Amino acid sequence: MKFNFDLEDVKYVKILYEGEHSSPNTIKAELKKITSHEITACAKFEEDIIIRTPQDVTLSIVCNNGLYRTKTKLKSVEADAPYLFFYLELPEGMEYQQNREYFRISADYKCVCYIKQGDNVVDYTTKTFDISANGVSVILPERLFSENEAEIDLMIDERFIHSNIKYVRSEDYEGVYKVSYAFEGMSQSDQDYISKVCLQAQMQKKRDNII
Fold first, then answer.
1. CATH 3.40.50.970, applies to 105-210
2. If pLDDT is split at 50, 70 and 90, which confidence band does 63 have?
3. Do the beta carbons of residue 162 and residue 151 sit within 8 Å?
């Protein structure tokens, strides 16, 4: 799919880049300019951020009609306090990810993550932090970044669900890490089930707030 956007159609972008010590980091930015060969994005920052350039990054584009994702190159970063300006190569194409807005709820479900580390697949028994029909955040003892061969087993209200997962971002959380993944290749019935669970939880929350 050709990369072709109007600025007014884009809500914001997310840039997944490699930070210090090869740790994956994500920054949310506003799309400022698109030319025939370059994208300019801008983000406000409150502390010094060291970003190596040039480097290959994953660019997510959140639009009014859905989410798109592509690979490109971050050419340079310029600071003009309190803003950072990101200059990226214009991607040749992009992949459409989803066209629905799913409810995300806080959730404490048992799960097992299977993540490739080097030549080995490591399994972590843990719990979810939040979930939607599009993805899940889990609590892990370390930042686990794997472009492929990652899977998850979930138990939601006595229903077993298995899915491939793709790393999205991670953040520090009370001495451990909240790591977010997007579901990939999940069956439609399982996705519909999670969507139903999340919708019911949202409706219950609204009823509780009224009482």
1. no
2. confident
3. yes
